[in-house]
Amino acid sequence: MFKRKLRFGIFLAPFHPLSENPHLAMERDMELVEWLDKLDYDEAWIGEHHSGGYEIIASPELFLAAAIQRTKHIKLGTGVSSLPYHHPLMLADRINQLDYMSRGRVMFGAGPGALPSDAFMMGIEVQNQRDMMDEALVDIIKLLRGEIVTNKTDWYELNNAQLQLAPYSRPSVEISVASQVSPTGATAAGRHGLGLLSLGATTTGGFNALSSNWAIAEETAATHGNKMDRDAWRLVGPVHVAETREQARKNLEFGLKDWLKYFHEVAALPIAPPDEGDPIDWMLEQGYAVIGTPDDCIEQIQRLEKESGGFGAFLQIAHNWADFDATKKSYELIARYVVPKFQQLNDNRSASFDWAHENHETFIGAAQMAIGTRVAQHMIEKGKENINPEIAAMVEEAMKGEGDN
After folding, report:
1. Which residues, 6+ apart, have CB-to-CB distance to 262 below 8 Å?
2. Which of the listed CATH numbers 3.20.20.30, 3.40.50.970, 3.50.50.60, 3.40.630.30 matches domain 7-346?
3. Looking at the DSSP assignment, which residues form a beta bridge with residue 12?
4. What is the Cα–Cα distance from 112 to 119, expressed in whole angstroms?
5. pTM attached to this predicted model
6. Which residues pair with 157 in a beta bridge?
7. Among 134, 164, 167, 168, which residue's Cα sits nearest to residue 151?
8. For the segment 100-137, what is each residue's pLDDT rounded down to a tens digit?
């Protein structure tokens, strides 16, 4: 029996240093999603940010609209839409339209907003963002399911609001809630029966909170008459692999320094090593990142499976630590050697190989017998005297030992 198929994808913020041409950087992001589609990855989640200069996609919906036209199979999600920054009707309407345009390939990721600087520019109190997310999420879920909503809060109003288009995906697009270490995301996912995006799954705090956050989600779900689905749980972590561990470390000389500078000086997320010592050694010692070979990635996923009790998808953070060629090669190596391990793609092949190997002599003997029989028949029909003597001698030699066969 085949077990549940673990899905693979990326979480694309994206991260681009200030020295790069932003147009070309975004074009590479799109090319990367196209590359993943060709490699048969399952999902790509695109972020929303408005400040800091490093994570330069302001509208994941615009990016998804373009990616829909340039891909065939991969599912595309907002990773994540910052709900306090949008009127619920406008955001739900855009997501619903994308679901139609993609013919059901769109996913909706929701969160409170990651960068305090974004909220500051819009006059939003950071301490209010999670409450605002909870308020908006309730109404967005209803709108995406085709319901009529009337509600008034201190920051938006809905009067008999309903989307013009019925849901393309039923009951609606798939919805997931972002979670770091705190139980906020897990509670929201359980309350509404949604998927969970564990963005800091490989950080020390995030890793240690995996089982407890899932327990919180299940408990909350049961209280509200819902049931959590591990298949809708996605764990996120950074990975870069190469043919050797030494090559993987060398590849990071390209962009790790810029990434660290951004997280040390601008971003508020606790996902970067301290500004001292060798950052690669620290990330490996903490189990935060995979910097090595496909086998190292396999070990990391197995570690996450054991700690979490099981999840549905592993998403690599698109970090741009290496140049684009090495980055594409890393994703290719994962697709070639890691994905088959967790999707059991080669189980039947291995079983067939072993079976053929174990019965090799029997099968070869049968084949030789069949060939010999046909050659002997030919000799009888033509007469031995009419057969080239050298060929006849070769046939007789091949038939030796066959006996009555």
Report:
1. 15, 17, 52, 54
2. 3.20.20.30
3. 46
4. 10
5. 0.92
6. 152
7. 134
8. 999 999 999 999 999 999 999 999 999 999 999 999 99
